[in-house]
């Protein structure tokens, strides 16, 4: 009850602050970002819609379509009708040019013309062609608060570089914090865990970048201050809200679960496992509550003010994203495998395989088998109960959000950072135990 009294005002304050940030970012005139948007469209045209980079021994698919949508929405804001523009998040809109707006509907993403090509749509929009405009009420598109101001001075290539540098600095700071509070092995577990999941390849695209930034900032805050129980749960609620505001449903578990993982390895106390289990469940509930409530608020506000029918559209979207009702998705339903949850898991696991993750997995498996033969495995798992629980949550996510995780595996696989950091922590504990035994023998 005490926690609920904290969360209710937190929700309203967070919602108001986020909407104000979005509102003010949308006041920037379209003409002020036009030059950098045109440069961005030209750059992405050279790269192509889907392109590949080599990272850690394999090719990584980069999705320019989503980036083109994000830049298009940033450009299509009408500064003379800010409130509607920030909620509608239209693409392909130019004032006094666009004449046809298509209502948002269930299932596949609608597009202009006969072929799905978001870069072409962006170029046509910046060239002031009258093409169909499409609203995107389902998401907050909070990334506009960062991208629109940056587009005044930088194109997409430069923005990606800037955010890459910021992210690397944040990762180093987080690793140093963990080292100071624990040991070098845990610090390396965090650092290598991020790097092993194609850290530098991520920043060739904007999509998903904000989930990573939120996870790093949240981790730094948590590792810097040991919050009280209710304060930490309130913090997690805020992180959940920020994730749904900034992210595009890419790999949200990284930002939702990372602060929980960091807290339990940095401030690991002597609580019994039952108490830890209870606390981590409450932590996750607070985190996912913030994520869901802020997201649903967008649907309700849009529906009440503009009668958009977005609540029905969004609920339908949720149903087919879980794979329960594939008929709602006209574009992909025919291709869906029968055992969707199994394919969702295998797609993400297989795509996560590279040089580093393979080495980590073999080391983990070797130690796991060795400890099992010595009947010490349960004791080792209990020491890392919370990270293992968080890893199970990741697996359940792939099973529940199966359609989305199956189709978009080329970025949803990054949720598995949590699993691989858990493996690295497990390996670290065995190294620490081995060193302690050697010291005792001296």
Label this structure with key terms.
442 residues; mainly alpha; 21 helices; 2 strands; 69% helix; 3% strand; globular
Write the layout of secondary structure elements.
Blueprint: H1 2-25, H2 30-47, E1 50-55, E2 58-63, H3 64-75, H4 82-88, H5 118-126, H6 144-151, H7 156-181, H8 184-195, H9 199-202, H10 209-224, H11 229-246, H12 253-266, H13 273-306, H14 310-321, H15 340-351, H16 355-373, H17 377-383, H18 385-400, H19 402-407, H20 409-412, H21 417-441
Antiparallel strand pairs: 1-2
Helix pairs in contact: 1-6, 1-11, 2-3, 2-5, 3-5, 7-8, 7-10, 8-21, 10-11, 10-12, 11-12, 11-13, 12-18, 13-18, 15-18, 16-21, 18-21
How would you describe this structure to a colleague?
The structure is a single chain. The chain is mainly α. It has helices at 2-25, 30-47, 64-75, 82-88, 118-126, 144-151, 156-181, 184-195, 199-202, 209-224, 229-246, 253-266, 273-306, 310-321, 340-351, 355-373, 377-383, 385-400, 402-407, 409-412, 417-441; strands at residues 50-55, 58-63. A two-stranded antiparallel ribbon has the order 1-2. Helix 1 (2-25) runs parallel beside helix 6 (144-151), helix 1 packs parallel to helix 11 and helix 13 (273-306) packs parallel to helix 18 (385-400). It is globular. The model has no long low-confidence stretch (mean pLDDT 88).
């Amino acid at each position: 009850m005490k926690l609920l009294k904290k969360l209710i005002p937190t929700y309203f304050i967070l919602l108001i602050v986020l909407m104000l940030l979005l509102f003010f970012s949308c006041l920037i005139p379209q003409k002020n970002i036009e030059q950098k948007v045109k440069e961005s469209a030209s750059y992405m045209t050279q790269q192509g819609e889907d392109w590949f980079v080599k990272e850690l021994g394999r090719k990584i698919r980069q999705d320019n379509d989503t980036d083109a949508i994000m830049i298009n929405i940033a450009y299509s804001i009408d500064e003379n009708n800010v409130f509607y523009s920030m909620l509608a998040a239209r693409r392909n809109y130019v004032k006094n040019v666009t004449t046809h707006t298509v209502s948002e509907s269930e299932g596949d993403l609608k597009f202009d013309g006969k072929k799905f090509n978001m870069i072409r749509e962006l170029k046509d929009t910046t060239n002031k062609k009258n093409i169909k405009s499409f609203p995107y009420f389902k998401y907050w598109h909070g990334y506009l608060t960062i991208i629109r101001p940056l587009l005044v001075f930088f194109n997409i290539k430069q923005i990606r570089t800037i955010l890459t540098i910021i992210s690397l600095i944040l990762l180093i700071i987080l690793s140093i914090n963990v080292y100071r509070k624990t040991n070098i092995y845990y610090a390396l577990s965090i650092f290598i865990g991020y790097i092993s999941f194609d850290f530098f390849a991520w920043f060739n695209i904007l999509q998903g970048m904000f989930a990573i930034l939120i996870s790093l900032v949240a981790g730094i805050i948590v590792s810097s201050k040991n919050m009280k129980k209710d304060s930490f749960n309130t913090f997690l609620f805020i992180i959940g809200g920020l994730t749904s505001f900034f992210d595009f449903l890419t790999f949200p578990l990284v930002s939702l679960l990372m602060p929980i993982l960091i807290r339990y390895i940095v401030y690991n106390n002597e609580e019994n496992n039952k108490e830890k289990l209870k606390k981590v469940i409450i932590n996750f509930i607070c985190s996912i509550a913030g994520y869901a409530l802020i997201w649903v608020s967008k649907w309700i506000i849009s529906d009440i003010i503009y009668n958009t029918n977005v609540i029905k559209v969004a609920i339908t979207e949720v149903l087919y994203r879980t794979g329960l009702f594939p008929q709602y998705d006209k574009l992909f339903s025919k291709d869906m495998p029968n055992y969707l949850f199994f394919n969702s898991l295998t797609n993400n696991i297989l795509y996560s395989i590279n040089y580093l993750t393979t080495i980590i997995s073999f080391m983990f498996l070797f130690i796991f088998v060795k400890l099992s033969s010595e009947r010490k495995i349960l004791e080792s798992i209990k020491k890392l109960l919370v990270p293992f629980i968080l890893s199970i949550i990741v697996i359940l996510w792939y099973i529940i959000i199966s359609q989305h995780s199956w189709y978009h595996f080329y970025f949803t696989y990054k949720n598995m950072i949590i699993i691989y950091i858990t493996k690295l922590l497990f390996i670290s504990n065995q190294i620490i135990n081995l060193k302690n035994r050697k010291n005792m023998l001296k």
